[in-house]
Amino acid sequence: MAENENGTDRSEEATPERVRKSKEKGQVARSKELATASVLISAAFAFLFFGDRLAYELSVMMKRAFTFERAALFAPEQMWLHLSGSFTGLAVPMFTILLMLFVVSILGSSLLGGMLFSTKAMMPKWSRMSPAAGLKRMLGLQAWVELLKSILKVLVVVGMVWWILGVTFDHILQLSVTPLPGSVFEALDMISWMFTALCCSLLLIVAVDVPYQIYKHTEELKMTKQEVKDEFRNSEGKPEVKQRIRQLQYEASQRKMMGDVPDADVIVTNPTHYSVALKYEQNGDRAPYVVAKGVDFMALKIREVGRENEVPVMQSPPLCRAIYHTTEINAEVPEELFVAIAQVLAYIYQLEQFRKGQSGRPKALPDDLQIPEDFQYND
Description:
Layout: E1 2-3, E2 9-10, H1 16-24, H2 32-65, H3 76-110, H4 131-139, H5 141-174, H6 182-201, H7 203-221, H8 225-236, H9 239-260, E3 266-269, E4 274-279, E5 289-295, H10 297-308, E6 313-315, H11 317-326, H12 338-355
Parallel strand pairs: 3-6
Antiparallel strand pairs: 1-2, 3-4, 4-5
Helix pairs in contact: 2-3, 2-6, 5-6
């Protein structure tokens, strides 16, 4: 289990914020063995594919370098042209191999951890210049791991060389009796395959190093319980700031709610505490829904705005309490209250018709509206 400098256990997995900050600092899992093996194996296969062309161009260059006219010895400009011409054919295979190695060196370094550019990683760290810190790194766990990897690399390479020599020993002896130039080309081909086998043997080191680097990076990013709490507190903000934000959001929602009160069809009240503003769209597909509700001062404010905009205000304490406790703003009222609300809306409609002189005075709204027992509140 990872520990920090004070010996506190880092038992918690790294949070996304911790991972993001580590990437900004250039701290990601990297494997030098993976990058080295990628370049060496690519170089081995490059020589296997382009080795014949490279050997041919080298032989042509040698022949051209040692074959020239006597007059060229006394003309320096001719010697320069002769030398530059000797390297012309060699440029193409060499450039191809070098370009391939350049690309592989970049990709190999980013296979683990991905592409990352960080200016913070390039900044000098004065703590690394401390002799005590240097001694700690020399005697620390990472130093022992690197030592074990070095020993393992030596053992793997020596073992591979021993195996290759055992397999090709008879063939190597036969080269001494093989006529030129066939023996030279055969020896070069054998060396190329030996080099490829040696480079591929490094994959054993990579198979050990990559999981270790991932594990090591994960352990380094682990956090203490206190660090997780502090990060959560910082990400959420200070309590007073959060309270202020909630207050502003509440005020904004209240302003929007009060702005919808003039569009309500009726305001149902409990004269002492509650007010609920309802809206019903006859040609819509919604049941009656709440556009505003409040208690105490807010209830008085809803009634005041309603009267200013000529919205009917009806007193029905049981219905008002039932709607207030069961329905949120902009939500449809429960189906169990449809009958009672329909009675209220019908009374409002008849009252409007009476005021317009289109019908007689409606009967008073009954006090005992049909409110199910589960929706009756006495607070």
